[in-house]
Automatic annotation (TrEMBL), chain A:
Regions that span the bilayer: 32-51, 72-100, 146-169, 176-194, 222-241, 275-293, 313-336, 348-368
Protein name, per record: Amino acid/amide ABC transporter membrane protein 2 (HAAT family)
Record's keyword annotation contains Transferase: no
Organism: Panacagrimonas perspica
Record GO cellular component, one term: plasma membrane
TrEMBL record, chain B:
Organism annotation: Panacagrimonas perspica
Pfam families according to UniProt: ABC_tran, BCA_ABC_TP_C
InterPro entries: ABC_AA/LPS_Transport (IPR051120), ABC_transporter-like_ATP-bd (IPR003439), ABC_transptr_urea_ATP-bd_UrtD (IPR017781), BCA_ABC_TP_C (IPR032823), P-loop_NTPase (IPR027417)
GO MF entries: ATP binding; ATP hydrolysis activity
GO cellular component: plasma membrane
UniProt keyword terms in alphabetical order: ATP-binding, Nucleotide-binding, Transport
ABC transporter domain location: 40-280
Name of the protein this chain belongs to: Urea transport system ATP-binding protein
Superkingdom of the organism of origin: Bacteria
Amino acid sequence: MENAMEAPRKLAKHAPPTPYQLLMRNDLPSGLFLTVLAIVTVLVPILHLVVPEGNVLHLSSYSVTLIGKYMCYALLAVAVDLIWGYCGILSLGHTAFFALGGYAMGMYLMRQIGTRGVYADPVLPDFMVFLNWKELPWFWQGMDQFWFAMIMVVFIPGLLAYVFGWLAFRSRVTGVYLSIITQALTYALLLAFFRNEMGFGGNNGLTDFKDLLGMDLKQPGVRIALFVATGVCLGFGYFACRYVVRSRFGRVVQAIRDAESRARFIGYRVENYKLWLFTFSAMLAGLAGALYVPQVGIINPGEFAPINSIEVVIWVAVGGRGTLYGAVVGAVLVNYAKTVLTDALPDVWLYALGALFVVVTLFLPKGIVGVLPDLKAKIDTLRLQRARRAR
Amino acid sequence: MSAPGLRGGIERFGNTVGRVLNRGGSAAAPRLDLSHDIILYLEGITVSFDGFRALNNLSLYVEAGELRCIIGPNGAGKTTMMDVITGKTRPDLGSAWFGQTVDLLTLTEPEIAEVGIGRKFQKPTVFSEHSVFENLELAMAGNKSVWRMLFAKMTPEQHLRIDEVLETIGLKDHRAARAGSLSHGQKQWLEIGMLLMQDPALLLVDEPVAGMTPQETERTAELLVSLAGKHSVVVVEHDMNFVRSIARTVTVLHQGSVLAEGSMEQVQNDPKVIEVYLGDGGH
Ligand SMILES: Nc1ncnc2c1ncn2[C@@H]1O[C@H](COP(=O)(O)OP(=O)(O)O)[C@@H](O)[C@H]1O
Ligand SMILES: [Mg+2]
């Protein structure tokens, strides 16, 4: 009798969940975030293009670009959270991948300038003419093709991450040592990209972009297209990360975070897991950088500055690591604060950031998104106590 | 990087690429060969830590299907021996073979796990942030390559297998509990369950009943006895009553080498053993 009752329920439990269920089960905040993102991605173009200027609801091009920038930062933060929050790999060099993606996009945009540069050379960007170069270096070949450049946007950061990770993880470099060599990596790239002979515009970097796919970057329509593309990439990037952490691969990765050698003794090749996660994360960072550059109009070696990578980690810590949506919240809030503060009190920002980090580490170990569940738990216990007393 | 290091690196890189291309099929792992009925050969193993010899010319043979107990005072080198077998520690001297064909000293930890050696640690180490169910899922035997895991789906058979193990280890009602929230004894059981999921040919079990109640100890003994035959089991334990209840052959380790070996009775009456144990404060 009992068995007969039990059987159908058991079957239902074993029925494979749909991909959406798999991704969003028990994860209200992620659903919420994706909903908000969808609304923003639809609403911002309307407020910018349809609502006439002068109307209170009109969104200025400055605001559109600003929100677009925040979304790029959010994607970068999600990439960092994926490796730090879920695998314990504290990369303090992730903006290196962001910047490389940005440079790949910048190279494409430079080639789009064509004869409209100061020196009007049909092939060579201005800075190369200025350096008296006669030919395009080999690594600039093909970058005039959009599809090729877009592949490079994820391929170059991915390749660097793969080689770097292969060396580091196979030698079992972990913890603080790994963080230090990631800082060294981004610093080395900073120095290299500063040099004119590298062929990336040296100190000035790449700028004065004109077109994207033959369309004027200053046109509102193009600006909005870039904005929408950023929203879509953030959404898909988030989804992909969600899939990764919800897969069995994701559970292995978290197991590695919590007990690395145990995972080895069960038979997991820990270095491969770290390597692929790290590479994927770097590719996402590269994508974020590529979306960032046409919106801000410049990429220069300053993006490689070690402090930038540390800032990203602070965003994630402030938002709450190991949740993905926490990274988004942290990236947006901290950067909004930065926008406001650097406007009002430019000298104070770094101190404020440092103080924020200390406060969060001491008082909010789970970040901002950890506050609500904690509060709810506290209220629940209070209620329980009161109910008991009443009885 | 030295030349052999570099060559090893290139080889591993090739292996990685190969593994990726064939979606993670394990690269020709040697098979376990039990044609001589011996599953584990340790010969002349010496391990030094800063000049101190934790293992000193240790030789030990374990038969296929055997349940072997290893006893010995604290610091005798029992855990270190398991570290050598599982690839965590490399010996200075000696050889370690798994069956006739597998040279354990050339394999990494995951490779050793893959050829069929599972281990339960002295200090229970479960994945504390994962649920009990997920811990068992992670330990499940099978291809453990990155690509497989990325697209892995649990089959109904695997689900049933996990349910079965949950039943065996008495954690059925805790399947969704965070492993970190379990009691010490339950963690021990969960780790044994993970071993069962791995389904290895040789189980190394380091102090399984530490922190267990007498009833739990008894059930552990029953379980280990039931595993022998199909698996080979090596148990390290301090608890003499426990050892007496399960052991057929006992090996006494002292200062990094074998002091005595035989049935519990033989060993207990061995004057050398008596001296060591009395000298150690008596167990
Ligand atoms: N990593 C290590 N470094 C230095 N000494 C160690 C290390 N591991 C074990 N030892 C020493 O080796 C001896 C054997 O240890 P162990 O194998 O843990 O003994 P047992 O498990 O039999 O109690 C002990 O004296 C211990 O202090
Ligand atoms: Mg020990």
